[in-house]
Amino acid sequence: MTYDLMPALTSLVMYLIVSGFAVVFLYGVYRRFRLYFGRVSLVSVGFVSKRTRRAVVNAFAQRKVLKKAYPGTMHLLIYSGMIALFIGTTLVFLDFDIWESFFHYQILTGYFYLVYETVLDAFGLLAIIGLILAIYRRIFIKPSNLPTSRDDIFVLSTLIVILVTGYLLEGIRLAVDKPQWAPWSFAGYQIALILERLRFDGQQTVPFYRGLWWFHAVLAFTVIASIPYTKLFHLITSPLNALFAHQRPPGQLSKPFDLRELLASGDFNVKIGAATIADFSWQEKLAFDSCTSCGRCSNSCPATAAGTLLSPMHLILKLRNSMLNSRGRESSLLLGSVIDQDELWACTTCRACVNECPVLIDHIDAIVDMRRHLVGEGKLDRAKKDLLTNLNNSGNPYGLSPNDRLKWAEGLDVKTAAQQPDFEVLYWVGCAGSYDPRNQRVSRAMVKILHTAHVRFSVFGNEERCNCEVARRIGEEGRFQQSALELIELFKKYKVKTVVTQCPHCFNTFKNEYLEFGESVKVVHHTQFIADLINSGRLKLRTGPHKLVTFHDPCYLGRYNEEYDAPRSILMSLGELKFKEMPRHHENSFCCGGGGANFWYKVSQKKRTNLIRFEEAQNLKPDILATACPFCTSMFEDASVSVGAKDPLSVKDLAELVADSIEL
Amino acid sequence: MQEENRGVWIFSEVSQLAFELLGKGSLLAKALRSELVAISIGSAEGNEDYIKHGADRVLTAADPALANFHVDTYADALSELATEHKPDVIMIGATRNGLELAPRLAERLKVGCVTEATRIELDADKKYLLMDRLTLGGNLVETHVSKVKPQIATVARGLFSSLPADGSRKGQVVKVEPKIKAPSTKLLEKKPKEAKGVRLADASVIVSFGRGIRKKEDIAMVEKLADAVGGVIGCSRPIAEDLGWLSEEQYIGLSGQKVSPRLYFACGISGQIQHLTGVRNSKIIISINNDPKAPIFEFTDYGIVADLYQILPVLTETIKQLRKS
Amino acid sequence: MVNIIVLVKQVIQTAELKIDKTTKSLLLQGVPRVVSESDKNALEESIRIKEKHGGKITVITVGTSEAKEALREALAMGADEAILITDPRFEGSDSHAVASVLAAAVTKILDYDLIICGAYSEDLFAFQTGPRLAEICNLPQITYATKITLDGTKIVVERDLETERQVVEGKLPCLVTVVREINEPRLPTLMSIMAASKKPTTTWNAADLSLGEDELGFNGALIEVLRSTVVSGERKRIMLEGDPKEISLKLARALQQEGVLKVA
């Protein structure tokens, strides 16, 4: 009709031309939307390659979802099944309603069609199996942090009904039409055979069929329309979040301002932190909306296990619900009404949640943002205030004299950078290594190791000051940045090339966070350094004692910076030492509870995190619990005292084990 | 320095403290060859006790307006008396009342004042007082000299010793009636504080214990030592939080109480940094632990490597015996 | 509307003061300077009063130019205006001389209803500044405040003494000294401290306050410091040996000598 007086293929040409105008239209929309979002540059290389790859790997290939076998498989079945059926239905729509009408051309013919039928039948079955597994899991397995709501029941039940009715419809169709190729739709075919036996295969089925057809169609439309109103919204938000989530390296918190710019402009009136839902960026809001309530974050969270108020999943859901309730209106303060302060303070920033999350939500970003607001308000308890005051006044979190940083080295041959500026390696002792008697032993062990391996090293001595990583984690961003700028100057002053440190927090900050100020320090954790020394033969070890040892992966070394091998390589080099992995090891390591500044203030817990982890170690009945972080060491020594066992297992830093085994 | 100022005066609204001041005052008065005078404000009773404890004379102002301490009325009384009688020295008990009275009085008389003197001696020529006090958190001892008279110092309990009461001593009790103006503030109510015991943060002697104490019943051993040294008990975090043997307000550490006693006993405490940050302002730390490698020994003034159960009873008994004598 | 003057003192942080082993003098280099703790309480209290009643908070300090940092911190907490009173001739001042300088400043400011200060400063623990200032300015003094309530020109203060708590009523203008228990001072972030440098800060010297030579520093002081002796701050780490009885006796004797325990 429309094309009656026009030559053939007019519609094809027209659609080609339309697509050109469509591009103009879409580009215009994109340009305008950019005004809201500022510097989102969609066409930068990073965006295209890294982000797309990440979205494809996570959203499409379901990499993180599959990390847990049962739910991963179950979701994969549903997901792939639904996608296949969706493609299948789309092909039918395109075929019948478009190509057939316009071009009198169909692709769903012949051999292609037969394969199409079989594949779709198979995927539909897989989807049903997946849904059954899902329903079974909710009803019988009841894993923790998986509450079942009306939303879940609606989605699971309607999907399964749609699929089952789909097969029924197919079965009836096949039973009535009896096409030759019926067996290719093997599932529908089986149903058709049953219907034939029941003699429900003739014209009498038509009214029933038509009714069921509409039921199936309307139910399917309902599910589609319900997507933005149910958990199915994750179909849209989760892949988008996988695309738009930040690309900062793990361990690099967001930078709400740059102190250098503020110093230059003289205007320090910055508002940072999230007080209301409106204070979060669009991407963060998208992230909150991507949560599928899978519960993996809370199930791996040490704060949740310790019985604190913090449950990462519930935190994100509360933020999401707050957003839904605000409906773009002036939103109320989160803290006090939606979120309890103690939820935020209980977080150790161990990153188990972010690591687990299949849709790439960054819970830590949200928590730190809200902490920043609390700090800006001055709403801190005595312990946190003392911590920040100590950092400010004394340059270390203990509040001990800045002139005492080298006391641990009394009697040892340790030179400062001022005394020996031509060092090969800058040994960053850190605050714990300088002041905590327990960790001073590790510093002394390090010196023994460095000297034995003939490493020309210096320390900063009294010029060393805390890098205030802990201030950043608490939310005092200004203090952290000030310290960062000062230390970067110090590194430059002595032309530091390589830094070795025994603290994973210092390691992480120097490695990942100083990049935000354009400074890339070559920093090595002491386990990496020692492993290198051993492997290169610069350090020879006697066979160690005949003992059973297990190792606790520190969060900031392992999960954050993916260094799992160096510590193990050291343990393997210690001869007679027999090694056994902790039940939760590598990226699943369970936090000691000291991070996120928790070491410095009291967190109300039902069972303390360090006790939980310590008991996990004890159950292996090892002789030694090996550590690689001053906080972990201190937390486990504390746990050891609390447990008060008759023969407590000994907690040893890897440097101590190595120093004890050095072959002179 | 004016020659006409004579007489060593003492005042404290707390009689025990006043007697201690009289103890020192009598030494000073003898060396200066002058009179020791006790100022008694507010009550007509007890004046004889001042004489018994060494005063040569008691100036007693028993105006009902002076019945209760008020900085305005007491400053009025003392300044009038001092202006009239021109004493050489005035020692005032360093209670909170005394600490707000002395400087006000000193300013009115336009003289100096040495707060919480730790040592008061006469110079070699016996002309003026050398008054020591601690500053800068106890890191510095300053020796002060007053340029004008009367020389005023406040003195805390326990620095000086009182003389034993001597009923045979003779002295004068003189009634005085200084002019008192109406006080500028009104007392609406006062409540005595519960004798619940000293807060750890305020305590000057603390005996603290950790996991070295094996059973809850054994805490009695620690309490006995605390009694003997006149202190209160405290503990490390596991005792309060994990074992619940003591309350949360009684544990000392990073997440607990911070203390600054002059004497701190750490019994069976290993000395982790979390605990040490709570005690580092202690003047003297004594540590007892059976592990010679315990980190506490790095942070201690006097260390004893011994079995708690053996040393504590002996130490308690020894101190008790010495203090009795 | 209550206009408040808050007295603030910048002190060196005494907690970790060290002694130079060779010169046996205090290592003051690199020791941080901080606002005296109870002055922070005084500031916090004044800000709470302002939040409730309105008014202006002027914070004043007598010190060196380094004290400007303390003033910035006070402004960051919420004070409106800061005045640094500095003059090299203040060197050698005692409590009386400092109080005289403060009195001159307070008189120059003129428009105030309430003066709040800490009961003592964390470096000297002298307890004198408040009462002396009150005496010179002929103001009532209410000390050791743990709670302040205002009602028109009436002020009601809860006070903390050793064995009792009092509730005292007075009239403005007056001077109140506060103790640590009165409140938890807010902690300004570094950014707010840096932003506070925009708030008005004035500097006055002796001439601005019309102080005569004989009132300043060594001349004006009524107390002279004859000498200062450094007390060692290091832990002694003396290990006592012997049988329990021997150890106990050694310890008792040592404690007696230290002056921390009277046993004989």
Describe the structure.
The complex is a heterotrimer of chains A (664), B (325) and C (264). Chain A is mainly α. Chain A is built from 27 helices and 8 strands. In chain A, the strands form 2 sheets. Chain A has a 4-stranded parallel β-sheet with strand order 2-1-3-4. A 4-stranded parallel β-sheet of chain A has the order 6-5-7-8, sandwiched between helices. In chain A, α23 packs across α24. The radius of gyration of chain A is 31 Å and the shape is elongated. With 325 residues, chain B is an alpha/beta fold. Helix content of chain B is 29%, strand content 25%. Chain B is built from 8 helices and 16 strands. In chain B, the strands form 3 sheets. In chain B, strands 5-9-4-1-2-3-10 form a 7-stranded parallel β-sheet. A 5-stranded parallel β-sheet of chain B has the order 13-12-14-15-16. Chain B is elongated, with a radius of gyration of 23 Å. The two termini of chain B are 43 Å apart. Chain C has 264 residues and is of the alpha/beta class. Helices cover 29% and strands 28% of the residues of chain C. In chain C, strands 11-10-9-12-8-1-6-7-13 form a 9-stranded mixed β-sheet, with helices on both faces. Chain C has a two-stranded antiparallel sheet with strand order 2-5. Chain C has a two-stranded antiparallel sheet with strand order 3-4. In chain C, β3 and β4 form a beta hairpin. Classes of the chains: A mainly alpha (664), B alpha/beta (325), C alpha/beta (264). Chains A and B meet through α26 of A and α6 and α7 of B. β11 of chain B pairs antiparallel with β11 of chain C.
